[in-house]
């Protein structure tokens, strides 16, 4: 096997990502049946409520105490892209927006100058389990966009383009493939400029099938995260060479390795790609700016304004058990699916 410039690394929590991304949190929880409060019917005794992240458990409460999830918390200076492939997420924010989305839906928020939101995972099924699979990707904003007004957008499953390749498929959240274009990103996003080559996609690679990724620009980073399956092969276009990727591994790719060959079972991967912003990054929890001084300014602004305040009766709101997928936008528009 020849030497090559690709880097294979283990997936942890969260997943490490290259510029322009900040990280990706992957959640897979085998939640049980729900109770009348949309929490786990089996109870939460013995859990570290408010900080339940034990990876040895089949499911976690995260920062939730009654319903799993993340009660009200602030963000500023970057974007959150939340993909829920299975289960549901109940969203509420300081803009007055609310949503219940999942089963393939995507939420994209430009946090910009700052907002608060909550993300709870309601266990709506009382007669069967409530599995959840969710990706939350943090995409950085360039300095010129870190103080823009927050922006809230929904991509419903029925609208998200899927590129079919034999029995394999690529679900496009951002970017393009084979002349298929994803839905438009928010206007201030780094992904809104095609020259930044941003791709966010989920690859479902059927057993034994091949998938060729397009040529990558000289400046762009491309990572794949192999989260379901057994093994697959990466082959080189410039040499008679191949690499094996195992479930639970990620890989940084360049143009030498663009073809994926499926193993004995379905392989599922997250594909993140983009040109780097190449600016300093200063982070403190949910605040991402360019300098420590800007972080302090953002924290002071949050203490002073609460990023618009919290208009909801509780910090972990959930919607009615019988409520379907919907979005109530800050301007009052209501969309129900």
Automatic annotation (TrEMBL):
Pirin N-terminal domain segment(s): 61-139
Name of one Pfam family that matches: Pirin_C
Chain intervals with Basic and acidic residues compositional bias: 313-325
Top-level division of the source organism's lineage: Bacteria
Domain Pirin C-terminal: 203-308
Region (Disordered): 313-337
InterPro entries from the UniProt entry: Pirin, Pirin_C_dom, Pirin_N_dom, RmlC-like_jellyroll, RmlC_Cupin_sf
Family, as annotated: Belongs to the pirin family.
Protein name in UniProt: Pirin
UniProt source species: Robiginitalea myxolifaciens
